[in-house]
Amino acid sequence: MSFRGLMILLTALCAVLFAASLLIGPAGFGIGESLSALFGGQGDAITLVMQEIRLPRALLGVMVGVSLGMSGAALQGYLRNPLAEPGLIGVSSSAALGAVIAMQTGFAKTVAFTLPILGITTELTMGLPLAGLAGAVVSVLLILFLSGPRGNSLTLILAGIAISALAGALTSLVLNLSPNPYAIYEIVFWMMGSLANRSFSHVWIALPFMAVGWVMLARLGRGLDALTLGEDAAEALGIRLTRLRLTMVIGVAACVGAATAVSGAIGFVGLVVPHILRPLVQARPSALLWASALGGAAMVLAADVFVRVILPEQDLKLGVLMALIGAPLFLHLLYKTRRAMA
Amino acid sequence: MSVLRPYSKPAFAAVLAAAVSTAAPLSAQDIDPPARVVSMNLCTDQLAMLLAAPGQLLSVSYVALDPLSSAMADEAQDYVINHGGAEEIYLLQPDLVLAFEWSDPIAISMLRRLGIRVEQVPNAYSLADIGPNIRLVGGLLGRAAEAEAMATAYESRLAELTTPDETGPRAAFYGANGVSSGTWSMSHQLVTAAGFHHIADELQITAAGQLPLEMLVLADPDIVFSPELYAGASQAESILDHPAYRAVAKDAGAFTTSATWDCGTPLVIEALEDLHAARDRILQEETAE
To answer: Bridge-partner residues for B256, per DSSP?
Structure first.
């Protein structure tokens, strides 16, 4: 399949899943009813449900999916290691730690902007995604420092386990110290991720950070392609490796930090999606970045539709589904990597 | 937005106190009432504080201090605080421990093994279960006559305040994590007794559980009951900040439930009185329109 064909196919898949995400929910409306409520604006209950509950949820599904898919592809391309994934190497859990600290200290409610969005004056507080970004930056830098520029599998995974465990423990500690009795139950949200009950304020606070991240990651393409030939060859081709590295760090941190701040740590997207799509783009990192963006969106949307179909009343966490799909694949990759290393 | 935040706390509590003080002293069958009583559950804490003779109740649970959960948080400050652990309760050397039906079975069995008398008070599933529970705790404390007076006062006031009305204003519960009450809950009994129509009836929700926000929006209630928010932030409670929820609560009128809702004690009468006031206000607003 040509790259163009693949992209058209993935776009169509995303569009179908986006529509499904809008149309499937505990309150069963007819398709016509839903669509007229979505685009109309009579202010009745169905309009409120479509415009304020389902639309932001579906949009966030796309945004989070694009962010996680691209981040996975970028990390794998840069480290030239198929096991690199923001969830597995602790970037997501570090971002969650940042977000949790921001919520408990009240920083989440700071850095306020009042913006007229679509004609409505909306107050947005950027503390939450900023803190998620900060957590993510720290962990990406740590990972790069620990695993070295070549991304040795063993150190990469071990460093990831250590960072994940530490960030997860600190997240639990912060939530346990909270005077709020519900905070403890949120450990599940921050570790498993969910899009339930997200609103447009989550869309608006995440979007600017994600947009910066997407632009940064999209610009990595040529550098990552050159890097497949080795670092020396890449430098000979005029790629400035330090700059490439910096762009990658900021791009991944912005994407994962913002995504985690609004939806919790959703793992395995960045692992599974590039893995499935890599053969279809002839393992070209630049093409894989774009394909993974769409693939990630499709995967998160699909998972978010599934959790509503399987257990509509229960708010099953997205991470549960992702791990069910992703963990066996991860084991398979690990097995293959071990054989390659032996 | 009509925010109803009723608080008429001393009213029924005063009636109860009067009932207890006018009752006869220790009756003949309770020759040897326990002298060192420890309660390890929020609801038994409150029943014990209402019923015990001065100096009889030694300790209540730490939850009794939390004004968001405990209708008697001020009173609880006069007691030793326990955390429901077997060791700390044993060290208080009680001759009676009051526990709840669902209190930690491990702590209870350990206390019993150590020779401490532990009595478990059954959960009040309905407003009608509260009278028998008052009498039960009163009997255990050797305060049967006081308990009888309190239970009778409770039951007659309950009868006055029970005015079910299927066509009354439509009420919904919504709290942290989108958890709503079902028809098996005490909250359901309270609102239906006060003449509201609980949307859980229409949605056929029996046990408490998560109600998707969109179902709440579609149910279009006349009043939404939600608990007071705790200090410190939580994602769970942030659902009450969701624009769709705020739109419903704004249309419907929000009612913050207080700690008197949380336990099957005679203090639910105060909750019922608040509910009647809220209902009258809604009906007045409707006629005004």
So the answer is: B226
